Automatic annotation (TrEMBL):
It comes from the Bacteria. Residues 1-15 form the signal peptide. The keyword Signal applies. This is DUF4878 domain-containing protein. Keywords: Signal. The lineage of its organism: Bacteria, Pseudomonadati, Bacteroidota, Flavobacteriia, Flavobacteriales.
Amino acid sequence: MKKLLLLLIGSLCFAQTSNQNLNRDLNAMKNSFLKKDFETFVEYIYPKSFELTGGKSNTVMMMKMMYAKMGKDISIQSLTYKNPGKFINQNNEIQVTIDEESVIKTPKGTSSNKNTMIAISSNKGKNWTFINTLNQSKENLIKAFPNLSKKLEIKSNSTIPKANPKIKQ
């Protein structure tokens, strides 16, 4: 469940790309999550992802449960997207990777997470949906989503813990 939450939280940042529609959809996704409007948020998740999570309504239910459980113990300090990759045409879709960076505060301290997001448009760039690659190898992603281009650059995920100023070292 925690991995799913991180996967979904990872989808929240606003990217500065040259594609206005991509920026629009990233921003709308981020805002819907921050407003806890998970019904809208899931509209920005790549539809084939729901085959892995049991459908949209199940995904919304899991998000609400996880958000309630995490309460005030975990907070997102900052979320950014940058460095969009090459736009690739694959199987009637446009696919692009974007670097994602998030800073999350937990009771154990703050961590900076770097990850890759895959943006996919099935209508020539008019609308975009997203796959977060958190803790997934390129091979596993292609197994789960066979339509993904092998040309996509999926960078290794990294988490960098930062010292908690309240804890004496």
